[in-house]
Each structure stands twice: as structure tokens, then as C-alpha cells.
Amino acid sequence: MLTIALRNLTVRRRRLIGTFLAVFLGVAFLAGTLTLNATLSRNFDNLFATADSGVAAVVHSDTLIASSGTGTPLGGLRAPIQSQLADSLRTVPGVADAQPDIVGYGQLLGADGKAVGGNGPPRTAGNWIPSATLNAYHLVSGRAPRDVPAGQPVEAVINRGAADSGHLRIGDTAIVQTPLPVRVTIVGIAGFGTQGGIGQVTYTGFTQSVAEKYIARPGQASQILIAAKSGVSQDSVVAAVSKALPPGVSAISGAAYTKATTDAIGTAFLTFFKGFLLVFAAVALLVASFSIHNTYTILIAQRTRENALLRALGASRSQILRSSLGEAAALGLAASAVGVVGGLGIAQALKALFDAAGFALPAGGLAVTGSTIAIALLVGVGVTALAALSPAVRASRVAPLAALREASVGETRSGFGRVRTPIGAVLLVGGVALAVAGGSLAMAGAGAAATTVAVVMLGPVAARGAVRVLGAVVTGGGRLAGTTGVLARRNAARDPRRTSATATALMVGVAVVTLLTVFATSVKASLKSDVDRSFVGDLAVSAPGFGGGGLSPQMAADLQKVPGVAAAVGIGQGTASIGGSAENVTFADTGKLDQAVSVDVRSGSVSALDGGRAVGVSASEAKKHPLGTSVSVVYPDGSASTVPVGLVYGPRGSFNGFLLDTAMWSAHANQVTDTSVIVKLAPGTSIAAARPAIAAAVVPYGSPDVQDRQQYADAQASGVDVVLTISYVLLVLAIVIALAGIANTLALSVHERTRELGLLRAVGLTRPQTRALVRWESLLVALFGTLGGVALGTFLAWTLVRAAGSSTAIAFEASPTTLALILAAGAVAGVGAAARPARRAARLDLLGAIAQE
User: Fold this and answer.
1) Helical H runs in 148-303?
2) Which residue in 52, 137, 55, 60 sits closest to 96, CA to CA?
């Protein structure tokens, strides 16, 4: 039986090309995702291990403000410590050197005055550590910075990647926003570990005094790095240093420090990145499984007489089952092995995709691990075998007497076919009920999953009627397509199970595309609607949406002086510990806030926040912190206070979570940055008249865009478009697999109907009509799948928006034009998928086709 299974693979290899391609593409995507993630993880580990190799211990504050959040450095946001502590630590036995390390925000502007760096990577600045052992960066050219007389540009070192991106060289003068604009002379170019930087992270190194002035506060540092004397272990240094530390400060080993940094990268980036890509790999494999199942269903049906003859010759049911599954597993193994190799190309393509979108990833050779190969092979073989299991079981149930008669696909039914309709109906009713009831994302997710399974199960029930209606509409009742259109409609409706199975793969892919499209449309519409409701200014200046960038609060003060400006209100965000948990907070000049945004006041008043007398909470947070109660706040500088709740507001704009007055925040944060400045013009001043003066006033701050209401709303939604574009590209593979499945099914159908096509040709059907027959049939199947996918995806998007809307301000909105474009694309793709099968059908030898049994 093994020999027969292998022989079937070689003899019928052309019929299995589609299945091979589906497994190959799905496994290649999975292997590419795992390879890219392993590569990034290895690169980061090696990079930081090399950069921090000389650090034996790190001394930091015990006060952890947040492990993640807005403006939080890798390893978490901690309170600062006294930099002079390094002097006493140098005298500790076993310590070779101790240096203060200041880490903060610094946006480098390139030679063109524009910000350097891509979407996502932080823009960092700090003190240049004079010890080559402790400094993660090393000079590749130039020299270290030195203090200069007041009034001159300060000296700085920048990383090589930033220098290349910004077209900056040693001796050039540039601006670094900290967020205050600092004029610098570049005196050195540095590398990080073995690279020119960490991806597109930018770094600017000042002298310690300059870093304390602009990034920290005089006498403060983020942490202290310690180098050990030769022969002294890290544990020994930690033990000795710990005895010399004041209360509230502790030491960890250099190895623990490096691990915390790489773990933070894994938690903040790699885990999300891997999960994001694996979702699309799962979609591709799911679509592939439907194509595989449909192909094997047809093949098994076409081999009914062959299997029956084997049974008549003595083969048992278990042998037939093992033979069929062995054939599928062998095909899956071969396709998966090629897919692992193809995954290398997919990994490179994925990196190029994110680089092109502005999310540059660190360079380095690909890391192909044993676990990646094992997982890819197991998943590929497993998916192929599971998809072929039902047809294989059906093949084992063929009676020996079936060898005496013909059999078609429609004659091979399983017992499950009799109960799938009632089960599908129950799942559909239950799924819709759960989705409509909503209440939580978990309930909505369960309802969406049940509805999706129900739609797949009920596909054959709907296929016959849907195809007839679609055929009548598309062909104009036969007037547009003539006889070929009528025949195509009858062929598609003749076997609804095959039509449904063929269309299901495309339906799943289109449903995901529609889900993402409608959800993104809803988010963008809600964001723009939110701006319309909350934005009461006339112009806005905003920082980039990614990378933790910010605007200097001085910008708002400068804009306030521009003729025709009535008010310029800066709005910023940061991270603090509130009520014992890390929270993102919004801060603004609450005394002028009503001239910039309309706050949805539920209780209390905005004026209660003036001068930091109270804190505002969103309606969702008010469930834990009602009006009039007090909350404990630990600020970025480590100080703590108890503040009453003076305002409860609805979610609107960036005001979600907690709202503080700028005066309260500025007193406890080293680097205060605004994310946007809203400008209200004086009565009688037009936007056209004021805009040039405002644009000139922001030039020293990197020339950020000056936006009107519509442009500001579009900018708030721009991040959605970037993510949606990446998602579309990633879904192309799933759509290709689905279309390959349609093409493969049509090709198998042409083979099965060879005699039928020959007879049609004999009674007058021309070659062009034969091609048109196959194309019309493909169009109907594609339209059925695309329509089902659009309907299902829209419902799933509605469910997701409704569930998310219970805690956010998202409202459902679908664009009929966009949905029509998706439907049209599905129709065009369906016709394209039929090209090769149609050509083959038209080229059939007339006499040979009629003579075939």
C-alpha cells in the first residue's frame, strides 16, 4: 500500500500541484515569520551582550515607576539617583570604575532640518561615558565631546546610523531637541556593539554637565555603571557594592542588566511582532487547509473505482486509510521542506516590507534554528494530513462492489453531511446571539468564531441557490453569456458541496480583508469624528505618532507671541504610577484648555485641576477612582503625593485615563514634551493669514507640520493606514493560495469532465465557448466566495467594533465603495484563476475526450 501511495504521488503529480503550492506558501510564511523573529532576537541578544560586556554591575533606584509606557526606556522607568554616588563606589574593593549613566529623549535633526529616525525606534540622548569599558557605544571616528564656553554650540557624538540617515559629518552643526533645541557641533561618530546603531534608533552623546542640564537635573543620573577589576566576578562586585549603597538604591549584575534589556525588547516589540505575523501565517494555513481538503475530496472521488478494486483484492479499510493519509503526509512533508527554504526569502521580504513602511529592523544574517525547521515541518505535515483526513476516511468506506460502476464526487458522501445542516444552523443562531449580546471581547470573540464555523458548514446549503441567483444576475438571465453562461451556472449548482468547498478558501481570505478594512474605516471615522467634537482650535502642530518624539513646551510659549494668536495650548503625555499601577497620563495647561479642546465633563470641573490641585479621570477610571476620592501618584522623579479627583470626563481625543495640569507634571519630570500644540486664533484673524507666521515660528523646532482641522484629523488616523497597508500585503499570500485552490479545483473538474466536454465539443461547442464556460464557472464560484467573505467580514467587524466600543469611542462605519471594490477584485481574480484550466479545456482532443471512460 505504501508503494501504491507513492506511485499515486508520482503518476498524478500534475493534479497535486495546487495542493503542493498551498502547503508550500503557508509553511513558507510560517517559517519566514519564525526565522525573522529568531534573527531579530539573536541580533538583539548579541548586540547588547557585546555592548554591555564590560558592565559588571548596575546601580539603580528601587522605585520602579513603570515597566512600559509612553517615554519609558528599555528595562523600565525608574526614579533617578545621585550621580555623585559614583565617586564613592569607585573606592569599593573589586571596582575598577563607576560612571553615571544618563538616558533620555533627544531628537536629532539632519542636514535638511528634518527629524532623523523612522517610525517606532526611540530617539535617545545621554552623557558620553568616558570609560570605553562601560560605554555601550564606541568611537569609529572623531573624538569624545568636551565642555565648551557658554554661548558656543555644545559638542556631541552621534551614532553612525543617524549620521548616515541625516547626512551629517564630523564638524557639522546640527540641532538636538531635548526637547529644548540644543545647537551642537558633531565631534565624533560612534557605533553600538558591532553595528552603527540599534536599527533606526538615534543616539546623541553629550558631556555629563550638558546631559544633566538638558536631559536630567544637576547631580542626577538614570543609573550608575560599574566595571570590575580583573579576576573579580560580577556577583562579588554586586555583593561589595550593595554594602555601600544608601536606602532606596540597589545593585544588579551586568548579566541581569543585559537580560532585563533584551527581555524588555522581547516584551515590548518581539512578542507583539511575532504574534502579529503569526496571525497572518495562521490565516494562510487555514486557507490552504480548505484548498487541500477540496483537492483531496475530488481526487478521492475520482479514485473511487481504484479504491474499490483494492478492497476487492483484499485491502482492508485501515490500509486504504493509511495509504491515503500517507500520500497526503508525504506530499505535505515535501512541500513543507521546500517551504522551509522558501521561508528564508519570505523573511527577507518581510524585513523589506517593514523597512519600506518606516519600521526599520536591525540588520544581520538570518538565523535558522532547529525549532523553526521542526515547527514548520510538523505544522505543514499536520495541516495537510488533517485536511485530507475526512476524504481519506471516506475512501476507506468504499464498498468493493463500487469497482463495477462509475462514481462521481457527488456520490461520495459522509455521514456527517446529514447532520451538518442542523449543527450549522444551531451554531449560526448561537453565534449571532452571542455577538449581538456582546458585553465583552471574549463573548464577542466566541460569537464571531461560532458564526464563522456555521457559515462554512452551511456553505453547501446556500451554494446551489446562491449560484443560480448570481448566475442569473451576472449573465443577465443568459442574454450576456448565452449558452456557456447557462451551462456554467448549472455546472456550479450541480455539486454545491464542491462549489462551497472551493469558494470557502477565498471566503476566509476575503473575510479577513473585509474585517480589517471595515474595522480600520470605523477607527479612522471615529478618530476624525472625535477631532470634530473635541477640537475647538484653528490650527495644530503635532509630533510624529511613533517613536516617543515630542515638542518642546517652549514652542507653545513662542506661538503665543505670534501676532493673531489668542492662545497656544500644549498637550503632552507621560507615564506615572497611579494607584499602584503604571498609567499613561495626559497633561495640559488646564487654565487655557477650553480654548483648545472641548472636554466632555461628566462631573466636577476642569478648573479644579488648575495649578495641580486635583487630577482628572476618565469615566472608565472613575469606576475605581470616583469624584472626590484621592489617588496616590508616583511621578517620574520618584516623588509621591496624594491628589484628589476633581474631574470625571468622557473619552475624547487623547484625554483617556488621567489628566493632570502641566504645572503638576513639570515639577516632577526631567524632560517635559508636548505631543501637540493647539492654536486658537484671535477674532478676525484668518487661518491663511496666520499660517505663514506660525510655520516660521516652528522652524527652530524641526519644522513640524502646521495643520488645519482636517489635516490634523487625517494625521491622527494616519497610523491606521500604515498598519492597514502592511496587513493587506501580508494577506496577499492567503488570497493567492485561495485563487490557486480555485484554479486547481477547476483543473481537476476539467479532467473529471473530459468526456462531457468532448461531447459538448462534438455537438458544436467551439474552443472560445469552452474557455468561456470554464471562466464563467470560475467567476460564479469566486463571486460566491467573495460575497460570503464580504458579508462575514462586515459582520465580524461590526462585532469587534461593538465590543471595543464598550470601552472606547469607536463607532461602526463601512464604506460601500470599498466593499464594492473588494467584490470587484474577487470577480477579476476569479476570472484570472480560470485562465490555465480554461486553456486546457479548450485544447482537449475531441475524439480522445469522447473515448475516455
Assistant:
1) 160-166, 208-214, 234-242, 254-265, 271-302
2) 55
**Helix/strand/coil (H/E/C) assignment for every residue in 611-662:** HHCCEEEECCHHHCCCCCCEEEEECCCCCEEEEEEEEEECCECCECCEEEEH
Q: Which amino acid is at 45?
A: D
294: exposed, middle or buried (C-beta count within 10 Å: 0-12, 13-18, 19+)?
buried
DSSP 8-state symbol, 419: T
Picking from 517, 493, 299, the residue whose alpha carbon sits closest to that of residue 395 is 299
End-to-end CA distance of the chain: 25
pLDDT in tens, 374-425: 999 999 999 999 988 888 887 777 777 655 555 444 444 555 556 778 888 8
DSSP secondary-structure letter at 142? E
Angle at 19 between CA 15 and CA 20, to 5 degrees: 100
With 0-12 CB in 10 A as exposed, 13-18 as middle and 19+ as buried, what is 276?
Answer: middle
Q: Which DSSP string corresponds to 686-752?
A: -HHHHHHHHHHHTGGGT-PPEE-HHHHHHHHHHHHHHHHHHHHHHHHHHHHHHHHHHHHHHHHHHHH
Contact of 695 with 706, CB cutoff 8 Å? yes
Q: What is the DSSP letter of 127?
A: E
Map grid coordinates 450576456 to a residue: 480
21 within 8 A of 13, measured Cβ to Cβ: no
CB-CB neighbours of 236 under 10 Å: 17
Amino acid 689 reads A
Written as nine digits, the cell of 364 is 544581520
Contact assessment for residue 845 and residue 777, using Cβ atoms and an 8 Å cutoff: no
- Three cell numbers written together for 711: 489635516
Question: How much helix, strand and coil, in percent to the nearest 5, is found in the chain?
Answer: 55, 15, 25
User: Residue 710's closest CA among 702, 699, 719, 718?
Assistant: 718
Q: Which residues of 185-221 are buried (b: 16+ CB within 10 A; e: fewer)?
A: bbbbbbbbbebbbbbbbbbbbbbbebbbbbbbeeebb
Taking the alpha carbons of 281, 286, 290, 296 in that order, is the dihedral positive or negative? Answer: positive
Give me 739's grid cell.
Answer: 485563487
CA distance 501 to 487: 20
Per the structure block, which three cell numbers stand in for 776?
464563467
pLDDT tens digits, 761-792: 787 778 888 888 888 888 888 888 889 989 99
Q: Encode 738-757: b = buried (16+ Cβ within 10 Å), e = exposed.
A: bbbbbbbbbbbbbbbbbebb
**Closest residue by Cα to residue 616 from 640, 567, 652:** 652
286-315 pLDDT tens trace: 888 888 887 777 777 777 777 777 777 777
Place of cell 486664533: 681
Are 241 and 57 in contact by the 8 Å Cβ rule? The answer is: yes
Residue bearing cell 465633563: 601
CA distance 343 to 27: 7
Are 267 and 68 spatial neighbours (Cβ–Cβ below 8 Å)? yes
* Bridge partners, residue 155, by sequence: 185
- What average pLDDT does the segment 46-69 reach? 82
Residue 808 in grid coordinates: 472606547
Strand pairing category for 57-61 and 223-228:
antiparallel
Per-residue cell: 660: 493632570
List phi, psi (to 5°) of 408.
Answer: -115, 175
pLDDT above 90: residue 730: no
Is 90 exceeded by the pLDDT of residue 243?
yes
**Amino acid occupying residue 445:** G
| Interatomic CA distance for residues 254 and 236, integer angstroms | 12
- Reported as type and span, the H/E element at residue 802 is helix 767-804
Return the number of other C-beta atoms located less than 10 Å from residue 183's C-beta.
13
Cβ burial of 617 (10 Å; 0-12, 13-18, 19+) is: buried
Enter the pTM of the model: 0.74
Residue 151: strand, helix, or coil: coil
CB 28 within 8 A of CB 346: yes
